[in-house]
Structure formats: structure tokens, C-alpha cells
Amino acid sequence: MRNLGFLIGSILIIYGSNAFETSDNLWENGEAVFHVGISGNSPSGGSWNDAFKRSMDAWSNGTAFQFVAIDDFVDPCIERGAGLFGDNITGVDFSPSVCGTEFGDSVLAVTLTAGTCKNLSCTNGFFISDADIVFNSLENWDIYSGPVINFVSDFERVALHELGHALGLSHSQAGSAIMQSLVSDANSLQADDINGANFIYGDGSETPVETSIATVYGINVVTLEPSSLSGPNDNVSFSGALSSSDAKLDGKFIDLYQYRFENDSIVNIQLSSAAMDPFLHFVRTSSAQDIIPAFTFNDDNSGPGNNASITESIPAGTYWVGVSSAQNGEQGIYDLTMTASSNGAPRLLDIIDSTHGPLVEINPNPVIDGALAQSDFVFQGKFLDLFQFKVNNTTTLRLDLSSNAFDTNLLLVDVLPDKALGNLFISNDDISDSNTNSRIEQSFPPGTYWIGVTSFSNSDTGDYSINISVVIP
């Protein structure tokens, strides 16, 4: 049963958790040969052929799928039309129509895939044997990077999109993805695009599911799963891409990732890219998102070639891994691997005398796990733990105290340089009538603060967790 499967993929032009979608169609050997012989150059002088082959290389270098270019022209419309499913030779060209059928409104290009159905009823997709691409010659085209220019379509990013259809991807729901249905400022493969191709062709290197957290610096930080590393040996590996839609730091695009190391660890990070000169940041951040200078590391080319590498012994805490470039405006796909090893020993944090009776643990971390125990200081008949943190800039923080073992009571005071208590004293027993956990949300001016963890009832003991998050206005 040859060529019973047929699919059209297109991209529209509108200016203005994983979301990729697959079509159930794939190349059985994970490779497609394209005959590339588009005549002429763009208005800015770039070769259509070179731009198309760069888009092929982006998929080949960044994913488990491989495109192979042959430098000759094959008409993409051979044996295309009513009841026809192509000639099993993949071509690409400009045309005023889709092989005799009008382009839809605002459609820039169309990918025509066909192949052999996986079952008799053709309900499980097909093995692709032909994927011709036709670009709408009635549109205004050029080759450029950066933000979309109104009424001028960038050939290279549209080719990148159509090649995604050619390998078996449908439109993505991710707003930043190349495979979304509308043209955007993104002009390189994004994590969602890479995930989609690797999901189909299965190299096991899919970028982890991510969530995003706003920061006081105007740059969102992404948490990937697993985001908490507990040892004794942890390994993280993923691919990403710097693009024009990313935030900038000192004129360079940057992606930020957050990890929590539960134990003191030796961390090795390797950052590589064939598309740019990568630059690596690794910084410890406090509960108020202040950067801790003693644990701030940067590297440009300590790895092989121009690649970046950092190896450091670090205390337990929350850290940001930043991926950027050595030169302003560089974009492209990168690969990051991180290994963390620890002996599982308790984290080493300074303990000071409060001068008021209990000891105080100096703990800048956004997440603090502890336990009320009978050996703790007793305050008004209840066990009490104290933690100290600092705020460098006025910041609104939300402190959540939770426990499955007891009804929590959360205390907060400001502390003067001589350890005398200041004028601030806040306590919270229950978030609501039906929730026995505790929460304090407060604007904190620069200063030193103590968090007190205790219980509502006398003599309660058990595990608890404090989670401190920054509230962005």
C-alpha cells in the first residue's frame, strides 16, 4: 500500500509545559534527503539555497533527526495534484500556487508529505517517503535575523518551520516555538521544537519540562525537572537555544535555569555550541534573589575550543545557571550538561548565639527544611527554631511555612546590628480557617531578619518546610 498517506503543513503570517504536537508520521530511518536547487538570491544578497541548507543544518545539529542536502533542482510539484502523492524525491522551490491550487490567505509556504501507511486503515499515520516544500512567490521575501519586519517574510525562519513539518511535527501551542502556526521574532529552534523532534526520533535527550519564575531583574528563570538535586550523584543534560525573544544581560541574550542543591556538592558544568561562542554563569541566589558574591562564577572558554566550563565546590543552596554568549546579539542552539556529587553529609551552615536564648542558623536559601524536636529551645511552652536571612534591596517576599506533623506558627522579626530586636514583629498561625499552615507576605526594606518556626500547641514536634518567594508587582 504505497502513498496512501498525505499531509499538508503550512505557516501563516500575522505580525504581532511542552506544547509540541506530532503528526504520527515519521521517516523510518530518521533521515530525509532534500534536493536543493533554488535559483537566485534574496534582495539583501543572500542565497536562497544557503539559507535553506542552514535551516536543514539547524535541525540536524540540534536534534536526533538528520537532513541531507543534494545540490540539484527537483520540482516539488512532480506528481502532485488530485489523487497524486509525489514521486518520492523531495524538492523545494518558489511558486505562485501549491502545485496548481491557490495558497490560502496569508499562507507563506506549504509542506506536502506523503508515504506508506502504517496499517491497512491508515489510522496510525504513515512512514514518510516524500516531503516537498513550496514557498509562496507572491509574498515579499528576504533573509534576515532579529524581529519580524512588517510585510517582509524571512525565508530562513519559514524554511526552519516547514522542515519541522517535513520531519513529522505539527503546529505547536508554545508561544516561543518555531513550530507555532504564526511567524514570530524567534528565528532559531527553541526547546519545544527540539523536544518535539527528539520525541519522535528518540535520542533520550529531550529538554525537561519547565516552569518559569519572575525575578527582580526582569529576567525570568526557568526551573527544569529535576530541579532539586540531592546526590550522591546527579546528572542533568539538555539542549536549548538563545534567540531574539530572550531577555538581554549587558547586550547579550540570556537563558536562566534554577537548581536547588540539597547538600554541599562538587559541581561540573559544560556548555557547548556550534552556532556561537557560549558564555556560562553560575551564581548562588538568596531568598530575596540577591546574588551572593562569594559564590558567583563565570566562564567563557575553559572548555574545549570556545566552549565554557565551570567546576566548583559549593554549599547547599539555590543557584542560577545562566547561558549567554561572548559577543553581543549571538543566537543559536547550545547543549548543557551538569554533574553534581556529594557525600550526603549534612550541609554546613553557620550557627550564632541570638543572645536571647535560642541559637540562630544563618540560612540565605529560599527553601529551608527542618524539624521541631524536644532538644530545641522552648519559647512559651513551644519548641522554637530560628533562621537568619538578609535583604539587600527593598523586596516583597512571601514566606510559607508548612507541616504535615503539627499546626504551624510563623514568626518574623527584624534584627539590629547588636542583635537587639527592631520594631517589626509579625506572626501568622493559619493561612485560613481550613489551612493550618502559615504565611507572611511583607515588603522588606534592606536589613537582617529572623524567621521563627514554632507550633500553635505546646510541645508539638515534627518536620516542616519554609518556602520563601519573591512577589513581583
TrEMBL record:
Q: GO biological process annotations for this chain's record? A: collagen catabolic process; extracellular matrix organization; proteolysis
GO cellular component term of the entry, any: extracellular matrix
Pfam families in UniProt = Peptidase_M10
Domain Peptidase metallopeptidase span(s) in chain numbering: 23-203
| Keyword annotations | Hydrolase, Metal-binding, Metalloprotease, Protease, Zinc
What molecular function does GO assign, one term?
metalloendopeptidase activity
Task: Please indicate if the UniProt record lists Metal-binding as a keyword.
Answer: yes
Q: What is this protein called?
A: Peptidase metallopeptidase domain-containing protein
The lineage, from the top, is:
Bacteria, Pseudomonadati, Pseudomonadota, Gammaproteobacteria, SAR86 cluster
